């Protein structure tokens, strides 16, 4: 599985680590199956540093639309910090962050280091 999950119940945090090639379909499946129930209240550290993105800007818009629709239905989630090192993935992540912010979702951040991401989650 290209996205593995580790739960830190004492910190109410989920760590998702993506490896290999990750598609939009895999991200949507992750959201629909792992960010549900009590896990919605867990802060999410999504580590994509060793993953290769296999989606386009248009697909990022689709993902942002889905997250925005969930937000508008009243589905609230804990903060999300996405960590990536590659320029393409970072750029797509920042695009995603901007698109969801325009939908009223202001708890997602994109970072280049685990330390920045951890600080974001700790302050949220």
Classified by CATH, the class is Alpha Beta
Helical percentage: 40-55%
CATH architectural type: 2-Layer Sandwich
How many domains make up the 3D coordinates? 1
Uncertain runs: none
Give the terminus-to-terminus CA distance.
29 Å
Name the average pLDDT. 90
Report the count of strand segments: 5
Structural class of the secondary structure composition?
alpha/beta
CATH superfamily: STAS domain
Radius of gyration: 13 Å
Please explain how this structure is put together:
Helix content is 43%, strand content 30%. The protein has helices spanning 24-34, 57-72, 87-102, 114-123, and strands at residues 3-8, 13-23, 43-54, 80-83, 108-111. The chain has one domain (3-123): STAS domain (Transcription Regulator spoIIAA). With 124 residues, the chain is α/β, with parallel strands linked by helices. The chain has a five-stranded mixed beta sheet with strand order 1-2-3-4-5, sandwiched between helices. The chain contains four helices and five strands.
Task: Summarize the entry for a quick read.
This protein is an alpha/beta fold and 124 residues long. The chain is built from four helices and five strands.
